[in-house]
Write a structure and sequence with these properties.
Elements lengths: L1 E6 L2 E2 L7 E5 L4 E5 L3 E5 L6 E9 L16 H13 L4 E8 L5 E18 L7 E9 L37 E5 L6 H9 L5 H7 L15 E5 L1
Antiparallel strand pairs: 1-2, 1-7, 3-6, 4-5, 6-9, 7-8, 8-9, 10-11
Length: about 220
């Protein structure tokens, strides 16, 4: 089976022997008092991609050169550009059978998070690069335009109402001018219909009456209602 690795349209001359794609998630597990653990499912996080690739310094017959042979410095310069550009790019891996039948592709917009250059005398003049990529998703700040179709409400002043005259307070007492022969018992019977109510009259007129049995003609007594 043939693999083809592209970093921003640049084909790696020797496909990595291993590729790791880690699809992260942000699910959250909670423990309930009576129901044990539950899992709250959320949208997946960004995918992490890691691989090691050999970059040859000499031309090998088994290597692939899309645009002709390039030395290792060409690929290292490309990696450096991808790192410092602060721009995402396409990472593409195609898989085909020996008969040329296509299996499936990996095609992600990514950012170059990190890369390491390894040199080992066992590899001769060739070098190995360890590359770490992270999936990139386009985003933008949403804006909203607010249009006011009505002017600000104006304050209204309510017309003052004419003051209503307060009703006269109810009279809570009456008066009676004592005449010859009056007694508090007779006065109470006249106003209350019951002579035994005379103490009400006496209590309301203590400033004038010292003895309920002694009242004099001409006295003006207050009769509580």
């Amino acid at each position: 089976m043939a693999y083809y690795f592209y970093l921003d349209k640049v084909l790696l001359p020797i496909a990595p022997s291993k590729l790791q794609l880690k699809v992260n998630n942000q699910n959250k597990t909670l423990t309930l008092i009576n129901d044990g653990e539950i899992n709250i499912l959320k949208k997946p996080k960004l995918t992490d991609i890691d691989f090691d690739a050999m970059i040859p310094q000499v031309k090998y017959p088994f290597a692939l050169y899309k645009d002709g042979f390039q030395k290792a410095s060409y690929y290292l310069k490309k990696l450096e550009q991808l790192k410092i550009s602060q721009e995402p790019f396409q990472f593409i891996v195609t898989r085909t059978l020996p008969n040329g039948s296509m299996l499936f592709d990996t095609n992600l917009k990514v950012s170059l998070e990190d890369y390491k250059i390894k040199e080992d005398k066992k590899e001769g003049f060739d070098m190995v690069i360890s590359v770490s990529l992270k999936q990139y998703k386009d985003y933008g700040t949403k804006t909203a335009n607010v249009t006011f179709t009505q002017s600000k409400p104006k304050a209204t002043v309510q017309a003052s109402r004419p003051a209503e005259s307060s009703p006269a307070p109810k009279t809570t007492s009456k008066t009676h001018k004592v005449v010859k022969g009056d007694t508090l018992w007779a006065i109470a019977k006249k106003f209350y219909g019951n002579g035994s109510q005379y103490p009400k009259i006496f209590n309301a007129n203590k400033d004038k009456i010292k003895n309920p049995n002694l009242i004099y003609p001409g006295q003006v007594l207050t009769i509580p209602v």
